[in-house]
Amino acid sequence: MKSLLTAVLLIFSACFNEIGAHPFYFAFAEVEFNELNNSLETSIIASAHDLESLLKEKNIISKTLDNAKQNETEYHAINEFLNQHFSVYALDSLTFSAYDSKLPPQSEFVLEGFEVLLDGNVQFYLSTVVQKPVHELFVTFDLLMDRYSDQQNKLSFRYRGRKFTYNFLNATKSQFIKLDV
Amino acid sequence: MNKILLFLISLTSLASFSQKKFAQLDHELPTANEYRTASGAPGHKYYQQKADYKMSITIDDKTQKLSGNEIITYTNNSPDKLTYLWLQLDQNLFADSSDSKKIEVEKMEDFKSVGDIRKKMFYYDGGFKIESITTIGGQKMRYFINKTMMRIDIDKPLLPGASISFQIKWWYNINDRIAVGGRSGYEYFEDEDNYLYTLAQFFPRMCVYNDVTGWQNKQFLGRGEFTLPFGDYEVSITVPSDHIVGATGECQNYKSVLSSEQLKRLELAKKATQPVFIVNQAEAEKTEKDKASKTKTWIYKAYNVRDFAFATSRKFIWDAQNQPIGNKNVLCMSYYPKEGNPLWEKYSTKLVAHTIKTYSKYSTDYTYPVAISVHAKWIGMEYPMICFNGGRPEADGTYTEGEKYGMWGVIIHEVGHNFFPMIINSDERQWTWMDEGLNTFVQYLTEQEWERNYPSRRGPAHLIADYMRGDKKFISPIMTNSESIFQFGNNAYGKPATALNILRETVMGRELFDFAFKTYCERWKFKHPTPADFFRSMEDASAVDLDWFWRGWFYGTDNVDISLDDVKWFQLNTQNPDIEKAFLKDQKNKSDVHIGVDRNKKEIKETVNEKDATIDDFYGKRDIYKVDFLDRKEFEEFKEKLDPKDQELLNAKKQFYEIQFSNIGGLVMPLILEFTFVNGTKKVIRVPVEIWRQYEDRVSKVFIFDDEISSVRLDPFLETADTDLDNNSWPRVEFPSRYQLFKQQQSKENPMQREKRLLNGN
């Protein structure tokens, strides 16, 4: 318990930012399971301003997201940050059950690129190869939730021509996505 | 009998079911009365209270303390006797007694770093310190503070038509907006030890009392903004003598606070069509290096406004230009530190002018004398005639394209708030969407008139689709109190703006919508409208029954997902044996053949009846596709019974398509269909939403064309916010994911590198 409280020291910054009107609080992910190469092809869209401010606060980027594109260290740090807040575990029926909650290794996403859009959003493109057979995905998507308690994230999962949408909130940061529906 | 009964039961249940989406909003809307009519207009007994303020404000630049002294004159225009008055103490949001921190849902993981803990435990001595509340004669008045609300008890009831004046003295520590947050406060520039103040909610303000809520004294929790009565203001602001002040209203004593050169420039600006500097960057940079020890008092008057705000700093650059609105001139101004340049000197004032001009066209004329944009890092916040806006370039003066659009968008949005809710004065504490949603909608129109194909964040229907799909448990109806909304921005800004855009572009059409929207704005300018007044006005002025739309988009959480399920193709039977028998023969020849038939053709060289001619009788020998005399005679007799028009129709070779649609998302919408014909031409057909009025889950429609179609697409212009485009086409077309689009377009070069290569010819 004590160790939790003595984690990384972050730079002090805005305390009551949520007191002011803040109209964003969202991130949307679109994930498609490409069975040809067994990869999860993913895009994540979020408010560029929110994310930029958080990444600066965490010393992940020094200037803007656009600048970070040209900076290999910052680019990799963003990749790592995204893997922390968008994590996927590919489960087969043997590796996970309600009785044995050991998770297999996390499928690490590779950030293939990102774009800061002119409408104020940023869109990340990521992919990861998962080990077969996959019956279920265990997804945690808490991007920006530690900054904004009202953050609500959504994931649309495309699989074999069908589309399913999952919600992620502060109270429900993880979801199981069954592939054999 | 059983069958008949069953049939009747099913019809009855179908009819009652269909009432859900198209039922009138009888239960949802309040009963119309003499204050608010069923047409959506103010009633013949509509009233509103008036609150006039005479204030003296002093800013202590050394301690960042604001002290104030106000005389409020409150006029009771209601038919009711008032035994007490309620005022808003918004600064108490930062006081220890505030509920805003207490109601934050927390988990231990919110305290996982020392930084998190410091944030949570941060203390700032905020909140109003009320020194005295007295009558004009100096007698103390009894009052009680309940967090962000204060009740003042009055000796005698305030009768209808009567006024009361009283005096309040107070002070508070101005919040460091960058550290503490908030809609107003100061920004500290450490390098030069200077402050830039953007001040609002700085004085005890009267609550609204009206026919809808009585006293609107719902506590300020931080999100649901302000509900304020109109009144006249006279405000004296005392600041360091080297400060430049911008405020709600018109300055009454420029001659005593500005230099003669500044006065001359201001006069020029009043007639200018381009921004003119009253204080330029070089002058502001010179001023910010010294700190004046004396003070100056700037005096402002503002009439018929619902609030007052101001900005003050020695860092301000100040420019202005004129913008005519109707037969009045509006002085559009910007105040910004050098840190805002080069963006601010280039765009801010022009954006202010463009915004009030465009909003006046779509809503109601801007009638205030000034419109001001002040640069304040990070935020966007609105007050009458003045707003505080972000959009700061990097320290080296560069900025990204996104930063530029962000700055444009926030200025248009916040200046636009002059109309919603400053002029069309809705209850923000209760309904965020009534100002944010309507404002975001007109913001979209204004952005599109600023730059063609402006990349607006909100407005076009397809941009809301991600938000609207998925589990409805975590989506709030638009008609939800401001504090209880999931996904504030999408719910209160994006969805209503999208809904209005859909009404304008798809459901009502631009002409009907613009007239109805303007009618609402004209009816409720300088008044207090409610959602019902808006809903009713839009219908009343357009003759379009929109109850289904308000029900689905504003009271519900369903999404649009209409699926084009099936297309069946038919042609008319002409009865002409020469045509129909040939057609049947052709169909027969084209029909699938069992594999055994094909193989038998090769392996059985001759069947018995092929070898023995006596085997085949009449049936064996007849050709069913042969046209004989009787066929033709019967056709002639048939033709004689038809009039020429029917004959023409039969021969027209019309193509019939029966298309099935299912409503997966639940939100009913018109069907917009684009048919592509085999010959390459296209045709768009719009089916009104009422096609769903009885069968809201599944409908079919027959379309008749001269030519054969090759494909059909539902919602081809992305008008309806359909959340799944993959089921909108026949033959089925799957749209690529965002990732796939990225992979298709991926290039290691940036656009400028490519341009360079192009110029070099390699």
Overview of the structural elements:
The complex is a heterodimer of chains A (181) and B (762). Chain A is of the alpha+beta class and 181 residues long. Chain A has helices at residues 2-5, 48-57, 65-69, 72-85; strands at 26-34, 39-47, 86-91, 110-116, 121-129, 136-141, 152-159, 162-168, 174-178. Chain A has one domain. In chain A, strand 4 (110-116) and strand 5 form a beta hairpin. The longest helix of chain A has 14 residues, at 72-85. The model of chain A is unreliable at 1-21 (pLDDT under 50). Chain B folds into 3 domains: 50-430, Sandwich (Immunoglobulin-like); 562-566 and 654-730, Immunoglobulin-like; 573-650, no CATH class. In chain B, 32% of the residues lie in helices and 25% in strands. In chain B, strands 4-7-2-1-13-17-15 form a 7-stranded mixed β-sheet. In chain B, strands 16-19-20-21-23-22 form a 6-stranded mixed β-sheet, sandwiched between helices. In chain B, a hairpin with a 3-residue loop joins strand 11 and strand 12. The longest helix of chain B is centred in the N-terminal third of the chain and has 21 residues, at 2-22. The model of chain B is unreliable at 1-18 (pLDDT under 50). The interface between A and B is large, with 63 and 69 residues.
Overall 3D geometry of chain B?
A: elongated
What is the multimeric organization of the chains shown?
heterodimer
Given the C-alpha coordinates, what overall shape of chain A results? globular
Mean pLDDT metric of chain B? 93
Helix content of chain B: 25-40%
Regions of chain A with pLDDT < 50 over 5+ consecutive residues? 1-21
* CATH homology superfamily name of the largest domain in chain B: tricorn interacting facor f3 domain
Q: What value does the Rg of chain B take, in angstroms?
A: 35 Å
Radius of gyration computed on alpha carbons of chain A: 17 Å
What is the mean pLDDT of chain A? 81
How many β strands of chain A by DSSP? 9
Strand content of chain A: 35-45%
CATH class of the largest domain in chain B: Mainly Beta
